[in-house]
Amino acid sequence: MPTKKTSSTKKTKTKKKTGTTKKAVASKKTPKPKKSTAVKAKASTKKTTSKKTTVKTKTKTATSVKKTVDKKTPVKTKRITVAKGKYYYYFGDKQADGKGTMKDLLGGKGAGLAEMSRAGIPVPPGFTITTDVCHLYYENDMEIPQKIDQDLEKYIEKIENSVGKKFGDASDPLLVSVRSGAKFSMPGMMDTVLNLGLNPESVDGLAKMTGNTRFALDNYRRFISMFGNVVLGIDKELFEKVILKKKADKRIKQDSSLQKNDLMDIVKKFKSICKRNSGEAFPDDPYVQLRMSRDAVFRSWNNPRAISYRRMHNIDSSLGTAVNIQAMVYGNMGNTSATGVGFTRNPATGDKEFYGEYLVNAQGEDVVAGIRTPQPIAKLKQELPDAFKQLKAITTRLEKHYRDVQDFEFTIQEKTLYMLQTRSGKRTVQAAIKIAVDMVKEKLITKEEALERVDPQQLDHLLHPRLDPKAKYNILAKGLPASPGAASGKVYFTAEEVVKHSGKQQTILVREETNPDDIEGMNAALGILTARGGMTSHAAVVARGMGKCCVSGAEAIRVYPRKKQFQVGKLIIKEGEVITLNGTTGDIIIGKVPTIEPELSGEFSKYMSWADENRTLKVRTNADTPRDCQQAIKFGAEGIGLCRTEHMFFAEDRIPIVQDMILADSPEERQEALDKLLKFQKKDFKEIFTAMQGKPVTIRTLDPPLHEFLPRLEEVMEKIENLDKVDDDYEEKLERLQKVIKRIDELHELNPMLGHRGCRLGIVYPEITEMQARAIIEAACELTKVKKLTVLPEIMIPLVGHINEFKNQKEVVQRVANEVIAKYKVKTLKYMIGTMIEIPRAALTADEIAEEAEFFSFGTNDLTQMTMGFSRDDAGKFLNYYVENGILPSDPFISLDQIGVGQLVSMGKEKGRSVRKDLKVGICGEHGGDPASIEFCNGVGLDYVSCSPFRVPIARLSAAQANLRVKKGTGKGRTGTE
Ligand code: ADP
Ligand code: MG
Ligand code: MG
């Protein structure tokens, strides 16, 4: 458990060094520290993440890191015990110690390399240091226990034997890469060092051996800058600037055009940057380089970007990373060498096409970093046909083997292909659905497996609007359609600016190219635009994962972050101006373009029909208007779980009547107003019943406190001031406004949430409940009689805590219903009267209540509020802090507190059903659309969940997944079929 331990063990140390070293960053940014450290951790975050601090203090970084690898360091008294075990896993030469299923121990990359090696796929040999070592490293005060460290040479020897070169050899050196790799892939979030093992002697050796001095120096400068950045904590930009300057001086565009002498000069400058910033000479001993890099990669598990990424993707911070050390192969050896990445299917659309990009004479991250815009993989077929054929064959095989789309990395060294990574490919939700459906057709996976392949939350992205095809607009420029969807927003040029502005408005992040440091900004922006980088660039990959629209590699635009503007030809677009991106076509447009609702594909309906076959939990919707109902029906809702009648009261033509009702001095006056409202409500219900096509509709009687329908005091005062005294009806108007003020005063409550609301209103003013019952039953009778529609009204009494409250309201509803039914003579009309369970006492006495109520609907919003004692309107002040600091695992208003509030739900249901076997039970809080809460409801055995229309598909898939997990024995509770 690296993260937790460090927060306590390093506490005293970090305090002394206040935000200096990388280690400090790592340990202090530890998520979920104990309460006592929480405040400190937060306070120090700013300091530690600021680049300036890191740059200024590299001296300490380098020395403190160095110490950990210096063999002469006296043995400390504090030593942890290292259990006997296997900490190194070799792979290469068509065999491996580990295998593909060992992701926990070897990380995804290590497991993939082992699996490929076993399958006889050409993989440069290497070994993986396990995640266990990562844990030990953190536990042992950021130092690899000696017992483990001492085997490093032995495994390097294995690589040496395999490739026939020696590590650090002056004439023909073995170079290695040191690569991070956690259980779940976190693309680009952690660190990797390439070409390790070079020094002034071995670089000469490499040059002589290959007869290619340029190549040797190219490797050397790459190594120094990566080591400088990853291990010594030096800002990448310092190195990049040197290269940019050189290219500008030489008037060349491509790194690959740099000549021998240029590179020699660059190497010299890089070294002095390292020396200046770290305070020590650049280490030449390959083993010192190796140990320092290994430790830095372990530390990169806790760099700020990795921490944010894990937070965004809900990845457990205690997993730790493995380190892979692997023989280098060279894509930068000339024009028959290349490096690239690809997918076995299109990750944006899901189409079955070989998809990828490569760069000739390049290495490692060049492709994804957008340094040059890479070539589409189809071109490789012409340039290096044999390697292409082999690549296609291998990756097709990998897809079949893993039974999932593979995202792979490869390098071609003088026409020979090597695979460097394979993992299941991240994809948009469109692609995920298409691929899942296609793979079932291809008999590669089962329908049940297909249902596990899509994250329900992601379905949300599908339901977002796209550009109206009828809209007229001029395209400013075009880039690559990197991630589909459309977004309009104000442009900002740094991640920080985007984060700063996106609370209040919609923003677009515009960058030359993105890198992992931009992650927070990318998360906050609605869309991302980059001038460089291809379809597999960082921006593209991350945006697709986030379901965010992205246009990448728009070469026609020039980005000037310092001037806060970008330029297309002569046109300048400044910070804060609005643009629109169409990630489906790559179009960039000035201004805002209208959008339309999305159409759902044939694959989507097929996929969702499989979900429906596999679930028993029903999904209803919370809807108050016919429009919402239609939307929800389109998304597959099976009824309304909550129709809030008061929402109909707020319409402009109704609110004055509602106010008349509230201001009435006598029951007669009140009745007059209610009669007017009756007409409106009846019409609304007729429309809603019609839209719901015979599906059940739960209607809640009036719930909010009456003052919510009155204007604010200041508004009334202002109106009085503005009254025209010469007006004929001045007196009349004034009188009414004064009455409003009096009423506002009378209705004022100190704690309205627990005040006169819910059934308490209908009990004190039965005529309100009467009117609503009449509107519902009359609407139902008329539709049944005249239109011959089936209507299933379920009348729900809110905020019941005592059985007598329910009895009181039930009597009112029943009396009115009998009267209306007799009047219309519709004997066939079936209706139900039930209650919302949202007060803890109601859950505690659910058996009593179920004697009278025909259904329960858990109002988990209020139930959470009242059980936890958190006012929903005020909890924002501390809830974020609670969640960020691990006081609570998540926001209980978003994801149900299963242990506490959930206990009331399951107990309420059990008690209710104990007296009424066929009691219908559902939930209608926000939780009805949250996958974890849905899984809980499924496990408890509720009949349905109800959520907002746009979350209906999410709930359908979550319910199916929950059921499948129970069947497999990995989920909670039971299948609904039991
Ligand atoms: P990430 O986890 O960020 O993808 P990797 O460890 O995969 O980082 O390394 C980044 C890039 O470095 C890879 O795309 C690959 O091209 C290159 N690379 C890593 N190891 C080697 C190697 N042994 N030989 C050649 N290239 C390598
Ligand atoms: Mg990689
Ligand atoms: Mg409520």
> Which stretches are low in confidence, meaning pLDDT under 50 for 5 or more residues running?
1-77, 974-978
Structural class: alpha/beta
Q: What is the overall silhouette?
A: elongated
The Cα radius of gyration reads: 33 Å
The amount of helix comes to 40-55%
| Strand tally | 34
* Assembly state of the chains shown: single chain
Quick overview:
This protein has 978 residues and is α/β, with parallel strands linked by helices.
Describe the structure.
- It is a single chain.
- The protein is of the alpha/beta class.
- 47% of the residues lie in helices and 16% in strands.
- It is built from 40 helices and 34 strands.
- The chain has an eight-stranded mixed β-sheet with strand order 15-25-24-17-18-19-20-16.
- Helix 1 packs parallel to helix 8 (131-139).
- It is elongated.
- The two termini are 39 Å apart.
- Residues 1-77 and 974-978 have low confidence and may be disordered.
- Residues 409, 421 line the site of one magnesium ion.
